[in-house]
Structures are given as structure tokens and as C-alpha cells.
């Protein structure tokens, strides 16, 4: 059981996510976790680069036939904007403004859901509109694995943020939950950075 001390904006620590030993341990452990995630994504990127030109026969669907840069660009802007709103949320967390933090996190969630909506539309268009399914070719398998794995991380990140918002809606901020919000925000930034690499490697390079 955690005894939560009462704070005001003036008495709230400057770095609440690291103000306790438990918070520091969570912070450190999370960086190790991100290291593992980075290696995993790197392996998916390497696989995609190795298989992106592997199509069953001459004239089959390739990246230049599939990808729509305007849509991919909009998805990128939506996700990058959600990263900015997450920064604002953490700014208010550090200033002990719980309601403002929750509001910015809600905007972050809505933007994340918008991104997912675009991604679902993209996958549906490829599979049902163009007949480009997961087993269509080595290229399609590599594409769906990489982009779909990232989409799964977006779902997990959104679920994590929503769970924190709901669970702490009546508790307010404390030195116990501040590290959780901060780590969830870091995870969201990681997801955004990975997408920037996907946009560059898959979509931009795919149009060359």
C-alpha cells in the first residue's frame, strides 16, 4: 500500500518521475526494455529491406504500385502531432496540473486512434482493393509484419495511456503514479520515432 503525500504546485518535485527510488528503477528498467524493442524492430527492418524486391513474377505488385505518399504523410503528421501533445501532457505533469495533463493525454489518444483508423483503411485497401494480402509475396509478408507490428505497439501504447488515465482519474497525481505516466509517454515517443523510420524506409524509399 502506498501512502500518498499531498502536494501543491510549489512543493511538487521538479522531476517527479525520478523523485523516488521506485521511480528511478522503473525509469532505468524501461530503458532496458526499449533497448530490446529497438533490436526487435531493427530485425524487422532488415528483413523488409532484404525482401522488398522479392515478388512472385514480373509485373506483379511492387511498392511503387501500392504506396500512397499523401496518405502516409498524413499518418506521419498525425502521429508526430500526438507526440507533441504527449510532451504538453508531461509538461503539465511536471507542474502538478493533473486535469490539464489528462486533457492533453486525451488528445494524444484521439490522435493515436485516428492514426490507427488510417492504417486499418490502408490495410483494407491493399488486401481487398488490390488483392495484396499477407501471403501474396515475400515482400507483402515483410511489409505487413513490420507495419503491423508497429500498429500493435500503437494499440498497446493507447491501451496503456487510457488505463492510466482511467485508473488515476480520481486519485490525481502522486509520486507513485507520476513515473508511470512519464514512462508511458516515453513509450509513445518511441513508437513515433519508429514510425518516422517506417515512413522513410518503407514509403519514401519505396517510391524510388
Could you characterize what this model shows?
The chain is mainly α and 208 residues long. Helix content is 72%, strand content 0%. The longest helix has 32 residues. It starts with 20 loop residues before the first helix and ends with a helix. The model has no long low-confidence stretch (mean pLDDT 89).
How would you sum up this structure in a few lines?
This protein has helices spanning 21-51, 63-66, 69-94, 98-129, 138-167, 178-204.
List its traits.
elongated, mainly alpha, 208 residues
In this structure, how is the largest beta sheet organized?
Answer: none
The class by helix and strand makeup works out as: mainly alpha
List segments where confidence is low: pLDDT < 50 over at least 5 consecutive residues: none
Helical coverage, percent range = over 70%
Topology record:
Blueprint: H1 21-51, H2 63-66, H3 69-94, H4 98-129, H5 138-167, H6 178-204
Helix pairs in contact: 1-5, 1-6, 3-4, 3-6, 4-5, 5-6
Amino acid at each position: 500500500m502506498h501512502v500518498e503525500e499531498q502536494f501543491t504546485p510549489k512543493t511538487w518535485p521538479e522531476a517527479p518521475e525520478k523523485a523516488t527510488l521506485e521511480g528511478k528503477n522503473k525509469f532505468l528498467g524501461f530503458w532496458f526494455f526499449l533497448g530490446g524493442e529497438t533490436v526487435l524492430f531493427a530485425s524487422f527492418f532488415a528483413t523488409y529491406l532484404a525482401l522488398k524486391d522479392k515478388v512472385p513474377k514480373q509485373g506483379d505488385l511492387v511498392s511503387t504500385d501500392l504506396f500512397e505518399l499523401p496518405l502516409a504523410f498524413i499518418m506521419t503528421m498525425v502521429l508526430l502531432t500526438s507526440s507533441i501533445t504527449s510532451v504538453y501532457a508531461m509538461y503539465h505533469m511536471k507542474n502538478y496540473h493533473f486535469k490539464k495533463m489528462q486533457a492533453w493525454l486525451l488528445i494524444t489518444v484521439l490522435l493515436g486512434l485516428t492514426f490507427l483508423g488510417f492504417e486499418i483503411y490502408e490495410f483494407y485497401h491493399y488486401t481487398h482493393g488490390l488483392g495484396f494480402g499477407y501471403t501474396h509475396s515475400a515482400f507483402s509478408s515483410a511489409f505487413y509484419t513490420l507495419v503491423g507490428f508497429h500498429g500493435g505497439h500503437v494499440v498497446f501504447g493507447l491501451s496503456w495511456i487510457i488505463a492510466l488515465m482511467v485508473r488515476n482519474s480520481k486519485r490525481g497525481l502522486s509520486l507513485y503514479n507520476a513515473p508511470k505516466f512519464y514512462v508511458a509517454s516515453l513509450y509513445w515517443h518511441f513508437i513515433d520515432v519508429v514510425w518516422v523510420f517506417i515512413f522513410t524506409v518503407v514509403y519514401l524509399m519505396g517510391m524510388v
